[in-house]
């Protein structure tokens, strides 16, 4: 019983520390020296005028609402960071050439299996998917090694997501069986996105008038989905690092 209470106390304490750090970071966007952990000597800055205190309190109150929205996303960022670090640690140990070699080995074995098990279209489907997955994984590792956090978020994570999303779509271009499943679902998703997300500023009308969802259009669609999802995932991991650097 005592152990359970101690565990709950530890969890609640960690959450309170996270919320305080996140709110202090919000405050520091406008006011100096708000993160007391990094300014233990000078202390937290506070306004010395009535007008300053009003602005300070209003910004703090707005921060409470922002933190309430961001913290659930930060919890997902903690989980994503855990798996991202495990993957990054593995990639660091074997190097870029190792990542390429492992991907080639896995996809090569699947391609050989498809050659003997399926028709020529199945063989081409698996082979094409393997090429896309290998190139995307290699680029994800490269961009996570150069340029720092910004390059990792804006290029590394998107190519990592591309390595997940694009291979099945590319394979469907060569496999009628996969095409019967992937393409109709992709079309339904595209219609939903155009009607409910990309209607702002007439983006949906522009896309409908300029592009058709067929052939390589499916590849372009999923690449267009993978990139912003990579940015979102990288942003959540960055938020987790901001709250809990270690």
Topology:
Blueprint: H1 2-28, H2 50-117, H3 120-145, H4 148-172, H5 176-196, H6 203-210, H7 216-243
Helix pairs in contact: 1-2, 2-3, 2-7, 3-4, 4-5, 4-7
Keywords, please?
mainly alpha, 0% strand, 83% helix, single chain, 246 residues, 7 helices
Quick gist of this model?
This protein has 246 residues and is mainly α. The chain has helices at 2-28, 50-117, 120-145, 148-172, 176-196, 203-210, 216-243. α4 packs antiparallel against α7.
Q: How many whole angstroms does the radius of gyration measure?
A: 24 Å
Residue-averaged pLDDT: 82
The helix count comes to 7
Looking at the structure, what is the overall shape? Answer: elongated
For the sheet with most strands, the description reads: none
User: What is the SS-derived class?
Assistant: mainly alpha
Quote the beta fraction.
under 5%
Helix content: over 70%
Spatial separation of the terminal alpha carbons = 30 Å
**H/E series, N to C?**
HHHHHHH
What features would you describe in this structure?
The protein has helices at residues 2-28, 50-117, 120-145, 148-172, 176-196, 203-210, 216-243. It has 246 residues and is mostly helical. Helix 1 (2-28) packs across helix 2. The longest helix has 68 residues, at 50-117.
